[in-house]
Design goal:
The protein is of the alpha/beta class. 38% of the residues lie in helices and 18% in strands.
C-alpha cells in the first residue's frame, strides 16, 4: 500500500501559533502553542517575534517526536506579501526575503513562511504557502478609486473563503471554477468576496463594508478627516480605533457577539438595535457584490465565528435569500484549507505559481536582499 503523504502545517496568530501534522487531508496531531505575551509586548515589528515563534515550533517537533524525514511538505499560512494571487507558491529564498524585509503589512502570519523556509532548509523538505493573506485575483480595473493616488486592495480572508466555496461547490456537484458565489467571512473583522471562474473578482474589505465586532467598516470619510485633524488622536491611535476599538467593542466594550446576544435576551434595546444594524450592513454588502455578475449566482455562503449565531444568520438571510440560497459553514477552517492546498500540490492537481515581485528600483530580489543585509542582521 502506498505510503500516505505527511504535511506539517504552521499558522501563527496574534496570541498563539497553530501547528498540526496531517496525513494527507486528515489531522493526526494538532496543537495551539500559546505565546508569552510578556515576551512579545515590546515587539514593534512582526520579525522581532521570529526567534520565539521558531523555537516554539521546534520544541513542538521535539516534544511530539515527529520524524521530519517522513514529512513530505511544510505548508505555511500565506503572509502579507506583495504581488501574489490565490493558490500555491513554493517558499523560495525570494519569497522569504520579501516576507522578512518587504512585507505588505506587519501581519504576524508572515512569520509562517519564514519559519517554514528555515525548517525546510534544515530538514531538506519543500515548503509552500497557500491562498495567502494578501492574495489579489481581481482585474486591474477593480483596483481604481476616485482618487488616482489611492488603489484598492482586493482580497477577503482568502484562505477560509476559498475553502468553504470549494466545499459548497462540491456539495452542489459542481467545480468551484464553474460557480458564481458570494462568501461572507464574519469574525473580528468582516470581509466579503464574489467568486467567479475560480477567482475572487471583487471584494469588500473590513474598511469598506459593514461594521464588525472590532472594526468600524465603511464610515463617512469627512468625519474621519475631522477626527484625524482634531488633535485628539495620533496616527497609531486612529488606526487602532478603526481596526480594533470600533464596532461592538466601541458600543458595548465587548468583542464577543455572544455577550451582546445575552444583553438582547435581557431586554437591552440598544444592543438589539446595534446588532440588528450590523446584520443589515452585512446584507447590504451582499447586495452590493451581487451586481458583479448581474445578480446571477449559485449561492451566498456565511462563514467565520459569527456564523454560529442563529440570530445574526436569520437577520441576514431574511434580507438576501431572494438573491440566492444561503449556505452556512460556521467557524474558521484555515488548517484544513492549508492541508488541502498542500495535497493538491503533492498530487499534481495544482501547479505552484512562480513568485516574481521585487520592490521598485531593484533588478532582482538578490540585489534587494544584499542591500537589506548591509543594513540589518539577517537570521538564517
Amino acid at each position: 500500500m502506498e505510503k500516505k503523504k505527511k504535511l506539517l502545517i504552521i499558522n501563527p496568530g496574534s496570541t498563539s501559533t497553530k501547528v498540526a501534522l496531517y496525513e494527507e487531508r486528515t489531522p493526526v496531531l494538532e496543537r495551539d502553542l500559546m505565546v508569552d505575551l510578556e515576551k512579545i509586548k515590546d515587539c514593534v515589528r512582526m520579525i522581532d517575534q521570529l526567534q520565539l515563534r521558531l523555537d516554539t515550533v521546534k520544541d513542538f517537533i521535539k516534544e511530539e517526536k515527529i520524524n521530519m524525514s517522513e514529512v513530505d511538505m511544510i505548508v505555511a499560512r500565506g503572509g502579507s506579501i506583495n504581488g501574489v494571487k490565490s493558490g500555491a507558491y513554493m517558499i523560495t529564498e525570494h519569497v522569504e526575503t520579501m516576507l522578512r524585509y518587504a512585507p505588505r503589512s506587519q501581519h504576524v502570519s508572515s512569520l509562517a513562511g519564514i519559519i517554514a523556509y528555515i525548517l525546510g532548509k534544515e530538514y531538506r523538505i519543500p515548503s509552500m504557502f497557500y491562498d495567502g493573506v494578501s492574495a489579489d485575483d481581481a482585474d486591474e480595473i477593480m483596483h481604481y478609486t476616485g482618487i488616482p493616488e489611492v488603489k484598492r486592495f482586493v482580497t477577503s480572508h482568502c484562505l477560509n473563503s476559498k475553502m468553504v466555496a470549494r466545499e459548497i461547490a462540491e456539495e452542489m456537484g459542481k467545480k468551484y471554477e464553474d460557480c458564481n458565489m458570494i462568501t461572507v467571512h464574519m469574525g473580528g473583522g468582516i470581509t466579503m468576496a464574489f467568486h467567479s471562474g475560480g477567482r475572487m473578482i471583487d471584494t469588500l474589505l473590513d474598511d469598506a463594508g459593514p461594521m464588525s465586532p472590532q472594526r468600524a467598516g465603511r464610515i463617512p470619510v469627512t468625519d474621519v478627516i475631522n477626527m484625524c485633524y482634531s488633535g485628539r488622536y495620533s496616527k497609531e491611535e486612529m488606526a487602532h480605533k478603526m481596526r480594533g476599538n470600533s464596532g461592538l467593542v466601541a458600543y458595548f466594550g465587548v468583542h464577543d457577539a455572544r455577550s451582546v446576544e445575552k444583553m438582547i435576551a435581557q431586554g437591552d434595546e440598544k444592543a438589539k438595535m446595534i446588532y440588528w444594524y450590523m446584520a443589515y450592513q452585512i446584507a447590504k454588502g451582499i447586495g452590493e457584490l451581487s451586481v458583479c455578475n448581474s445578480g446571477k449566482m449559485d449561492c451566498i455562503i456565511l462563514t467565520g465565528g459569527l456564523a454560529y449565531s442563529e440570530m445574526l444568520v436569520k437577520w441576514i438571510s431574511d434580507r438576501v435569500s431572494f438573491l440566492a440560497p444561503v449556505k452556512v459553514i460556521p467557524g474558521e477552517h484555515e488548517m484544513q484549507a492549508l492541508a488541502n492546498g498542500g495535497m493538491r500540490v503533492l498530487l499534481n492537481e495544482e501547479l505552484p505559481k512562480e513568485y516574481t515581485w521585487v520592490p521598485e528600483g531593484y533588478s532582482d530580489y538578490k540585489e534587494f536582499l544584499e542591500a537589506c543585509i548591509q543594513k540589518s542582521d539577517y537570521v538564517e
